[in-house]
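Record now logged underneath.
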Amino acid sequence: MDEFWVFGYGSLMWNPGFDYDERAEALIFGYRRSLCVRSWVHRGSEESPGLVLGLDRGGSCRGMAFRILASAWDEVIAYLRERELVTNVYLEKTLPIRLADGRRVTAVAYVVDRNHRQYAGALDAIEAAHIVESASGQSGPNDAYVFNTLAHLRQMGIRDQWLEHVVDEVERMREAS
């Protein structure tokens, strides 16, 4: 393999943490960005879990792809595994993606394991907002994570209507209290 690609749908898009040879907007089919992972450490606790992003089944997801040179593969994949597989809530998969210029490539992506106990399932935006609004963990409040994620997506020109709806609901809850 001369190169490989990594697909990012959350913080990996703006904070990859590794060197890459090319960066391109990309689309993955059959998966969507979702607040479907219960966070027990960084954005919540086991008693009061927060929610963080996962790549879940269904729909499509606009994200960012990074082309990695073959010479950096071992280092990058080791880094990604340390970063993404801490509690094994994600499965490392190689999936087809389409780059913004029309090229079709395969990329390593981290998909939520629906059988893992941290999988929250498909929540509606109101339910997700109630969790996000009240949870906090070692890395800070859950709502800060969600608001920051949405701000970064907007800066990159990526719309995520479901995540926007969650943020709208959190803001509505704050105004009501």
